[in-house]
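Schema walk-through. Below, the input block comes first and the output block second. Nothing else is stored per chain. Lengths vary across the set, and this one has 295 residues.
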Amino acid sequence: MRIAVTGKQGQVVQSLLRRGAETGIEIIAVGRPDMDLADPPSIATAFSALRPDVIVSAAAYTAVDKAESEPELAFSINAAGAGAVAEAAARIEAPVIHISTDYVFSGDKASPYSEEDATAPISAYGRSKLAGEKAVAAANPNHVILRTAWVYSPFGTNFLKTMLRLSETRDHLRVVADQTGCPTSALDIADAVLAIATRVVADPAPSLRGTFHLTGSGEASWADFAEEIFAELLKSGGRKVSVERIPTAGYPTPAMRPANSRLSGDKLARIYGIRLPEWKQSMTVVMQDLLNKGL
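--- output ---
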């Protein structure tokens, strides 16, 4: 099986490349200068030449706060670009697996969101990603949309790596405690994507298509997440860092964040038999990877 994934540096892309090397599955990362999500003709050309069995639409505009001041760019990449990737997949009769986000929801619900819940993004980034979901579904019926949240990994920039970096010089950190979500390892996302890709190539069942939620099991606030990181760091011989739990109002940002980013993975477990590991377990795996490399 040959899988093409959009982007070259993102956490999901790098995790897919690692898993591909470990499993022998051919993963081809496609990005600039060969393909640019802001340039739809380049997308069609790139994939018609590669002829992959599956296209994973992972690249995105992810600067959540910056999107508030440049929504046009966010939409050109996350909506028009995602739609062009799905259309390119349809032209070569390949399924597309599109990575989306918890930010399509308002965060007002008291319990985890299901795929049937109404979307109501509260940021420009969230609106651009929701528009991308709609563009993907319209361009290619043979699609799987995976909403994930709070992604971290040994790669790129993410909350876990930021906490580790700050721990090198800080003994005390103020971290938001009234936003709740499901921390998710990009390596776990990659494992799930490969399993889903294998199924959709072999099985045309409509039940395998559509929108699914894919996050680590369990839940946490950002402060909970930070405390677990520092507890694991201390066990590994690192410095002791204390966490002051603060409200969202104590850490203002240009873009609003959902107070509740919890996503239910029941549908994915029911249809695909996939449920990601408990987030603390996966966090420990990623941390050990980073600490072993001295990061």
